[in-house]
Amino acid sequence: MKLEIINLLRCPRCEKADPRGKYQIMGDYNNEKIFDGHITCDSGHSWQVRDEILRFHEESEPLELYDQLEIDESLVSKLPDGVDESDLNDLRVALKRFIDGLDRDAYAVSGTMLLFSKLLGHTDKLFVMFSPDENELRMIQEVTAKNGVYDNFYFVRHDGFVLNPATSITRISLFNNEEADLRVYLSDVEQGTVLGKVGSKFLVLG
User: Fold this and answer.
1) pLDDT of 64 higher than 70
2) Number of domains in the chain
3) How far is 26 from 39, CA to CA, in rounded Å?
4) Residue 116 belongs to domain spanning
5) Entry pTM
6) Which of 99, 168, 198, 200 has a 20 to 30 A CA-CA distance from 175?
7) SS3 call for 123
8) What is the pLDDT of residue 43?
């Protein structure tokens, strides 16, 4: 987890506190990244970082649970409703059109992220992935490392966006209904900005 990314995030417990203070870093880190350790906000709330995943949640399972993780290929290859294997290339092309059209350096992402990370090609954009499921985040780590784009992804365990309001990072929702600045979803009809035809559906930016 890059230190510059951490300062884009708001401490989940500081709903009413000034979120703009920087975090104190402890553990295994260098001038650019924290690998394992803790970050502490100005109000004293401490959060664990394990294998570059920032755990913005209350519970912390025993670390042994994370040593034997195997990638569940059925989850990695799970497709949105209405899309089958023959549509994957169309979906890849449409997602590339979406990524190529982004004009900022960093984005916060939630939704169907495993498929997104699998289909994503080379990019200079940075993506902060939010999910309450640590296994999902660890699978994304494996997939992005295999595809050579790991350094473009950062991982936060939380069930929603927790962003510092002093930053201008854009929120992206992929194939779900979470409130976001940009929503990418499949539609039966042409609407919004059509990114491409995927099978019988349209990939839409709304």
Assistant:
1) no
2) 1
3) 6
4) 3-59+72-205
5) 0.85
6) 168
7) coil
8) 83
